[in-house]
Design brief:
By secondary structure, the protein is α/β, with parallel strands linked by helices. About 30% of the residues lie in helices and about 20% in strands. The protein is built from 20 helices and 26 strands. Strands 11-16-15-14-12-13 form a 6-stranded mixed β-sheet, sandwiched between helices. Strand 14, helix 17 (about 490-500) and strand 15 (about 505-510) form a beta-alpha-beta unit. The chain binds beta-D-glucopyranose (BGC). The site of beta-D-glucopyranose (BGC) has 6 residues, from loops.
């Protein structure tokens, strides 16, 4: 083999260097561009006015299947001078064909192993079925604001939990060893959006974000760092600006932190159109300025706005140095080599049925749903005995919806709703002897149809049990889906009032992609099951919980506010002055009780768990903690032990508590297990100061396990 970059026995950096030295500036520029196929009227969409460019670095949102994808790839590999394969990107967020729970629901399972496994399936399906090599996920942004539509895409409000899930997705997509990435069915992960986009003011999408160094270090950066440490090969920069500097042009974040501090050596892609949107942010409307700002900050590939096409002119005028261009191109090529694309540019062309939704995939989707659905209230009505329920009224706008369960970023799942099921089908399956009446009662938006509410009320009156299928449709969360309110949308609240008036036992089944203000549901329903958007098999898993075939084990990955005016409310807030003072003063007419409606980590089971004392002992430079947990009820159950740490006295104010570890265990009735935690002072007891430096102070600490049991210990220094 005399073409060195084609020789797989050579190290990747040697191949990259060899290829780079053969490339023209034009070819290099193309490696940093993306085109889309069939997506909107954006200027980079391949069509009559914009022919496919076989030199392009990446194509995204391609949905025409492996065969068509291979044909385009063949043009790149066999019909261009250097034969550089194209990288195929797609928003595979929570599954490709098999519909898994949305990320926020996955977080509630507190079971990252399940997430690793579902990400493995998603990678295999998108690779085999669509020829995808690069998934634009996980979205790892910590979020304090349920109004923000994209809260559904992340792993909740806790940086530690989000980091654990981020690492699980990276392992699932890319494999556990760097060499796995080149194996069939593995795809590169993309941590997004770097960074702080979730801090948009008032949850309004694409809004300003004012982020102190401490906020970045405490909340927003840690999940990204966890993903980089797990080996993620790409990141996507974000739309927001970070305290004045747009993220896409933010050298401190994209280079100083990401590359110099964390040692990241993959590539960064901008978010859709973010480079040209520097104009909207009032930064510059000159494409050359925009390109220079993005490239020199550390942004390598330009998603879809074509601005980087000015690169040859910038090189010719000397404004862009060859070395700066080469650095970005080398990073993109590196990932292509690591993916094995030069050796295996094509994917096998097999029918979807052979590669997707295999029985084991569907079984996994059910397992994930079982562990993602949280029981938030049970006055003793559940579990139900299906033999004793004779007449059921299934009421609510989501009674027959599939999409509500599939969720917002459904990739190819929605196109294939056959894999999903709805409440009505599952109520029929689980209560075969019962007489079932199904009434929507109202639409998901206010349609003014009060007669429908009355029909639903009449159906409820004739039943022994009312299942209220409420919440939000799949399209009501996601990008550009922020809400000013977090109540049940449409006339659902009026419908609830009518159902409550019947006096019948009421079970709320809430499907949604965000924490909703569900105070009235908790007040008036005998039981509340929070399904989130738990995927194709969500309705089935919910029925299993209703009848006790599955013991619920999910906990809330976000704090639930009582009302929108309480936002932001999150468990790891900083301690405040006048800690005795109430949040809302009693002389205000709209006074709310103190504290959130439901805390982070809340979730019920059909069994009970008891925690023994937390014990902490010094082990050399570290500490060892343990707690014994016993299942004191009559059913087997799963319990997530969350370890919370409080730094009692510190020079800089500290969160009232923060999670430093968790473990989900399964216990038979009467069984006890001891859960252990290693506390590494440098990692767990230190905190960022106002400059972002980590500080480790001697002092007093409190450690509790799931808020049940607590120990105090002293750290005297290393
Ligand atoms: C979103 C990204 C997404 C990209 C490609 C953007 O608008 O912010 O999360 O990956 O589109 O679809």
């Amino acid at each position: 083999m005399n073409v060195r970059y084609k020789d797989p026995s050579l190290p990747v950096d040697v191949r990259v260097k060899d290829l780079l030295r053969r490339m023209t500036v034009e070819e290099k520029m193309c490696q940093l561009l993306q085109q889309t196929i069939g997506k909107d009227a954006n200027p980079e969409n391949i069509g009559p006015d914009n022919p496919f460019n076989p030199l392009v670095g990446s194509v995204l949102s391609f949905t025409e299947g492996a065969k068509a994808r291979n044909a385009y790839q063949r043009a790149a590999v066999e019909k261009t001078r250097l034969g550089i394969p194209i990288l195929w990107g797609y928003d595979v967020i929570h599954g490709w064909r098999t519909g898994f729970p949305v990320s926020l629901a996955q977080a509630g399972s507190f079971n990252p192993d399940l997430t690793e496994r579902l990400s493995r399936v998603a990678a295999r399906e998108c690779w085999a079925d669509g020829g995808v090599n690069w998934s634009f996920s996980p979205m790892v942004e910590v979020c304090h604001d349920p109004r923000w539509g994209r809260v559904v895409e992340g792993y909740g409000e806790d940086p530690y939990t989000a980091g654990a899930f981020t690492a699980a997705v990276v392992r699932g997509y890319q494999g556990r060893k760097p060499s796995d990435l080149a194996k069939p069915g593995h795809v590169a992960a993309c941590l997004k959006h770097f960074v702080g986009y979730s801090a948009s003011e008032a949850g309004r999408d694409y809004s300003y974000t004012d982020l102190s160094e401490r906020a970045l270090r405490e909340w927003y950066l840690p999940p990204f760092e966890a993903g980089v440490r797990a080996g993620a090969r790409t990141l996507m920069s974000s739309f927001n600006d970070i305290t004045g500097t747009p993220a896409v042009a933010n050298r401190r974040i994209l280079t100083d932190v990401l590359r110099e501090e964390w040692g990241f050596d993959g590539f960064v892609v901008s978010d859709w159109g973010a480079v040209s949107q520097l104009k909207d942010q009032g930064y510059s409307d000159d494409p050359e300025e925009q390109t220079l700002a993005a490239l020199l900050a550390g942004n390598d590939m330009d998603m879809c706005d074509g601005v980087f096409q000015c690169i040859p002119a910038l090189v010719a005028s000397g404004r862009l140095k060859k070395a700066d261009l080469d650095r970005a191109v080398a990073r993109v090529l590196t990932v292509k080599f690591e993916l094995g694309l030069f050796e295996n540019p094509y994917v096998p062309e097999r029918p979807t049925a052979e590669t997707c939704q295999l029985p084991s995939d569907r079984a996994l989707a059910l397992d994930c749903a079982r562990e993602s659905i949280a029981l938030l209230k049970n006055d003793g009505l559940l579990p139900l005995d299906p033999k004793k329920v004779r007449r059921i009224a299934l009421v609510g706008p989501l009674a027959e919806s599939y999409h509500a369960h599939i969720g917002s970023w459904s990739a190819m799942v929605a196109a294939d709703a056959t894999g999903a099921s709805n409440y009505l089908e599952q109520v029929r399956a689980f209560f075969p002897k019962a007489k079932i009446a199904c009434e929507k009662g109202c639409g998901i938006v206010d349609d003014g149809d009060f007669d429908a509410i009355e029909r639903a009320g009449a159906a409820a009156e004739a039943a022994d049990l009312v299942l209220f299928a409420c919440g939000e449709e799949g399209w009501q969360t996601g990008e550009y889906k922020s809400r000013v309110d977090i109540d049940l949308p449409g006339l659902q609240d009026a419908l609830l009032t009518r159902l409550v008036a019947t006096g019948k036992p009421l079970v709320a089944l809430v499907t949604t992609g965000r924490p909703l203000a569900i105070g009235r549901l908790l007040d008036h329903c005998a039981a509340v099951l929070y399904l989130w958007q738990s995927g194709a098999r969500a309705a089935e898993a919910a029925m299993e919980i209703l009848v006790g075939l599955t013991n619920p084990s999910a906990k809330l990955p976000m704090t639930f506010p009582r009302a929108v005016g309480q936002i932001p409310v999150y468990y790891n807030a900083h301690s405040r002055s006048r800690s005795w003072a109430k949040d809302y003063t009693a002389d205000l007419e709209d006074a709310l009780p103190d504290g959130p409606l439901l805390p982070f980590g809340f979730g019920l089971s059909y069994t009970t768990f008891e925690y023994g004392p937390v014990k902490v002992s010094r082990r050399g430079g570290a500490f060892a903690a343990s707690v014994a947990v016993t299942n004191t009820g009559k059913r087997a159950g799963k319990e997530t032990v969350l370890w919370y740490l409080t730094d009692v006295w510190a020079t800089y104010t500290q969160p009232v508590r923060r999670v430093v570890g968790f473990e989900k265990i399964e216990l038979a009735p009467g069984e006890t297990k001891t859960v252990r935690l290693r506390i590494d002072p440098l990692r767990d007891l230190s905190y960022p100061d106002t400059e972002g430096r980590r500080v480790l102070e001697a002092g007093e600490f409190r450690l509790s396990a799931s808020l049940h049991s607590e120990a105090r210990f002293r750290f005297e220094g290393l």
